[in-house]
Amino acid sequence: MIKNTRLGYGAVAILFHWTMALLIIGMLGLGLYMVRLPQSDPNAFALFQLHKSIGFVVLTLAVLRLAWRLVNPSPKLPADMPVWEKGVAHLGHTGLYAMMFLLPLSGWLVVSASPWGIPTIVFNLFEMPHLPVPGDKGQAEVFASAVHEYGAYFLILLIAGHVAAAFKHHFIARDETLKRMVSVRTSHAA
Ligand code: HEM
Ligand code: HEM
């Protein structure tokens, strides 16, 4: 029930999946919204701090989730799925994992290299130190900012494909793929 089996996801993987899906989709929306605010907007500072704070939660969860995934068996994809489709699914999941790290890390690099030197106070509780940035900080910021922005666009595409695939399994192939990411019972009865 807690751990995965070869047939389905356990409670921990399901909880990680949906908590992080919610946080990451919210962060994409918040990021795109806050960068469009005028600098004079009275809420901009607080929204950036919130974005950075939740970003560190996502990074922490990503580390724990990856560790959990490595000590668990991964449920097998449906046996009747063509090999190429399984390949695409694995590639997509790997890409999603990669972006769960790349987005927070590139964001952290943006604020660390920024000439403004604005501290990150995580949920108003403690200050997160900046990453050491050797060399040209200006160049590092431009690079990190591009990685963060285009990484976010790429992640949106990945999520769109991922959700479309989940719906295709559920409504067209009518298999257990979506159900086993929703309920432990289904995942183990399959
Ligand atoms: C799940 C993790 C994250 C997601 C999905 C995410 C997403 C985004 C998005 C969509 C934007 C708007 C990009 C644009 O149009 O320019 C943005 C901007 C930004 N994010 Fe994040 N972000 C994440 C984590 C972080 C973290 C951890 C930090 C810093 C500690 C951070 C700092 C920033 C900053 C400073 C900007 C302003 C734009 C820039 O200077 O590049 N983000 N983020
Ligand atoms: C409403 C949105 C979403 C739906 C309907 C959905 C659905 C699913 C389903 C059905 C699976 C199981 C696939 C299988 O059995 O192999 C899955 C796995 C997965 N999903 Fe999502 N998902 C959503 C959002 C997201 C988001 C936003 C992310 C990350 C950015 C994500 C990352 C993953 C990963 C990495 C896996 C592989 C299993 C694991 O290692 O945890 N999903 N998703």
From TrEMBL:
<dbReference type="InterPro" id="IPR011577">
    <property type="entry name" value="Cyt_b561_bac/Ni-Hgenase"/>
</dbReference>
<feature type="transmembrane region" description="Helical">
    <location>
        <begin position="53"/>
        <end position="71"/>
    </location>
</feature>
<keyword id="KW-0408">Iron</keyword>
<keyword id="KW-1003">Cell membrane</keyword>
<keyword id="KW-1133">Transmembrane helix</keyword>
<dbReference type="InterPro" id="IPR052168">
    <property type="entry name" value="Cytochrome_b561_oxidase"/>
</dbReference>
<keyword id="KW-0472">Membrane</keyword>
<protein>
    <submittedName>
        <fullName>Cytochrome b561</fullName>
    </submittedName>
</protein>
<keyword id="KW-0249">Electron transport</keyword>
<feature type="transmembrane region" description="Helical">
    <location>
        <begin position="96"/>
        <end position="118"/>
    </location>
</feature>
<feature type="domain" description="Cytochrome b561 bacterial/Ni-hydrogenase">
    <location>
        <begin position="9"/>
        <end position="183"/>
    </location>
</feature>
<feature type="transmembrane region" description="Helical">
    <location>
        <begin position="150"/>
        <end position="171"/>
    </location>
</feature>
<keyword id="KW-0812">Transmembrane</keyword>
<keyword id="KW-0813">Transport</keyword>
<dbReference type="InterPro" id="IPR016174">
    <property type="entry name" value="Di-haem_cyt_TM"/>
</dbReference>
<feature type="transmembrane region" description="Helical">
    <location>
        <begin position="7"/>
        <end position="33"/>
    </location>
</feature>
<keyword id="KW-0349">Heme</keyword>
<comment type="similarity">
    <text>Belongs to the cytochrome b561 family.</text>
</comment>
<dbReference type="Pfam" id="PF01292">
    <property type="entry name" value="Ni_hydr_CYTB"/>
</dbReference>
<keyword id="KW-0479">Metal-binding</keyword>
